[in-house]
Design a protein that fits this description.
By secondary structure, the chain is an alpha/beta fold. It has one domain (about 10-260): L-arginine/glycine Amidinotransferase, Chain A (5-stranded Propeller). The chain has 6 helices and 15 strands. The protein has helices spanning about 35-50, 95-105, 140-150, 185-190, 225-235, 245, and strands at about 10-15, 55-60, 75, 80-85, 110, 125, 130-135, 155-160, 175, 180-185, 195-200, 210-215, 215-220, 235-240, 260. The protein has a 3-stranded mixed beta sheet, covered by helices on one side. β3 (about 75) and β4 form a beta hairpin. The chain is globular, with a radius of gyration of 17 Å. The protein binds citrulline (CIR). Citrulline binds near residues 24, 66, 69, 88 and 254. Citrulline binds near residues 25, 66, 71, 121 and 252.
Length: about 260
């Protein structure tokens, strides 16, 4: 089997909709511009495709402003997929919208039944375990449900810390390869990555931490030159994508796709 942590044959994305202007945000730092977001999204999809992967591009959904952030709806594992249960009430309906596509791709589809919540942005699958951070969106009951399904499929799940004020665990970290994690210093200081090789994003470039390793590429937000240079020196092939509009909604590189 290929390495499920960063070798992927498929990805799912969803086009941003005009309703993106109503997307959730912790702080108002401006309204996202749809045309700019569409252009960046097209660059993102093109980068995924350039690795040889098939990208399933879903239509925009006006009724769900945050639906472009597909990562939060599903956890894709080699054994099957788990439909999430977002902690943001406005995002709950996105899961049902994603379900038919997931059913086309997987024989075994499970779900977080509730009343707990988990969002995909709080889950990092590494070469040896599944790390889950509790956050405002992911709670103890949701983590317990997830752990039960993951254990059935032979995965070990470990609960970790999400820094206060950070939307998701993965807002502050990403997987570079099975044993290497890119992290902010503030998250790494919690000790959650002990035993892994950890690369720190440059001071002041914390928003660069949400990147994705996708086959031979690392997709990262543009505008973080010191982190990009560090990754390049470490031997990663970095592709920089504009994240200016998604950043206004607390989104980054990982949330824009499901990868499997
Ligand atoms: C939200 O607040 O739910 C969206 N505006 C952003 C979601 C980002 N998702 C992710 O990082 N996995």
């Amino acid at each position: 089997m290929s390495n499920p942590t960063y070798e992927f044959t498929r990805a799912i994305t969803r086009r941003p909709s005009a309703s993106i202007v109503d997307g959730l945000r912790a702080e108002d730092i401006g309204t996202p511009d749809l045309d700019k977001m569409l252009a960046a999204h097209a660059d993102y999809v093109a980068a995924l495709k350039s690795t040889g992967a098939k990208v399933i591009e879903l239509n925009a959904i006006e009724a769900h402003p945050d639906a472009v952030f597909v990562e939060d709806t599903t956890l894709c594992l080699p054994q099957g997929a788990i439909m999430m249960r977002p902690g943001a009430p406005s995002r709950m309906g996105e899961v049902a919208e994603m379900l038919p596509t997931i059913r086309d791709c997987y024989d075994d589809v499970r779900e977080i039944k509730g009343p707990g919540h988990v969002e995909g942005g709080d889950i990092l699958v590494t070469g040896r375990e599944i790390l889950v951070g509790r956050s405002d969106r992911t709670d103890a009951k949701g983590v317990a449900d997830l752990a039960e399904i993951a254990a059935e499929w032979g995965h070990q799940l470990r609960e970790v810390f999400t820094p206060p004020g950070v939307l998701h665990f993965k807002t502050d970290c990403s997987l570079m390869d099975a044993e290497t994690i890119l992290s902010t210093k503030r998250l790494d200081a919690s000790g959650c990555f002990e035993g892994y090789r950890v690369l720190h994003v440059a001071e002041g470039e914390e928003a660069a931490a949400n990147a994705i390793r996708f086959n031979n590429l690392v997709l990262m937000a543009s505008g973080f030159p010191r982190t990009a240079e560090m990754l390049d020196k470490e031997g990663y092939q970095v592709v920089e994508i504009s994240n200016s509009e998604c950043a206004k909604l607390d989104g980054g590189m990982s949330c824009l796709s499901l990868r499997f």
